[in-house]
Design goal:
The protein is α/β, with parallel strands linked by helices and 250 residues long. The chain is built from 5 helices and 16 strands. It has a single domain, classed as 4-Layer Sandwich (Metallo-beta-lactamase, Chain A), CATH 3.60.15.10.
């Protein structure tokens, strides 16, 4: 059996600690709840227990993807590169003490380490602005992370341009306002998106939804367990409780 070069630990919502080819990357940081916005699940890992990070990547400025309180507490601000989707986020990160912050435009690629790269992938737009998804390539493994994405067609286009990935992290709660289109994928779209990407494994993110003030206006439409039931042969759905580390074995 091959030694794994990919491991994932979900923190909360779309916040994931991704270990790829010996490097650690944090996605969509969210550690601290607000009075109006709760996790609906335990916190998988506190900021103080994060390993040294090679990079932080953020898809959008919503508070449950862009936790400035927690980012202010992270001790590696001076040395950890951060990639964001908008100029305002970049200014905010610099004000917190992050020295290397860059707005990564769609289809731009950066080399995070000699054997690890990241590409910003189109993930549509919301009222908050442009959303990024990210593809990571490290060693023999390719990982797609879509913390706030709704359109499966964008994934088909990415597959046509870049080829298949191994693991896809996609939203599954289908969150949508009382009036208006969904903000993120539901289980059917997540499964279709993983298939469109050619992934062997779908790891659900953006799944839990708590009873809080925002839940009066935004409702979930599906879950990770629904995605498990919908998955076709050849696609494994790995539901990760917060704090559980999972390794991908080829």
């Amino acid at each position: 059996m091959s030694k794994p070069n990919l491991a994932l630990t979900r923190v909360a919502n779309a916040c994931v600690l991704l270990e790829l080819d010996g490097r650690a990357v944090l996605t969509d940081p969210w550690f601290t709840e607000r009075w109006y916005l709760r996790r609906g699940e335990p916190l998988g890992l506190p900021v103080a227990e994060l390993p040294p990070l090679t990079a932080i990547v953020v898809t959008n400025p919503a508070v449950n993807h862009w936790d400035m309180r927690a980012l202010a507490e992270y001790p590696g601000k001076a040395t950890t590169p951060m990639y964001v989707s908008g100029e305002r986020m970049a200014r905010q990160a610099r004000s917190l003490g992050y020295r290397t912050v860059e707005v990564l435009r769609w289809h731009e690629t950066r080399q995070l380490a000699p054997t690890l790269s990241v590409e910003a992938v189109p993930a549509g737009r919301t009222l908050l602005g442009r959303n990024n998804a990210y593809e990571f390539t490290g060693g023999q493994s390719r990982v797609f992370f879509g913390g706030e994405i709704q359109d499966v067609e964008l994934l088909r286009e990415h597959r046509a341009r870049r080829g298949p990935v191994d693991v896809a992290l996609l939203p599954t709660n289908g969150l949508r306002p009382l009036i208006g289109p969904p903000l993120v994928m539901g289980p059917a779209e997540a499964v279709a998106g993983a298939v469109a990407l050619g992934a062997r494994v779908l790891v659900p993110v953006h799944d839990a939804h708590a009873r809080d003030l925002l839940s009066l206006f935004f409702r979930r439409h599906g879950s990770a367990s629904d995605a498990t039931r919908m998955a076709p042969a050849g696609l494994d759905v790995v539901g990760l409780p917060p704090g559980r580390r999972w390794e991908f074995i080829r």
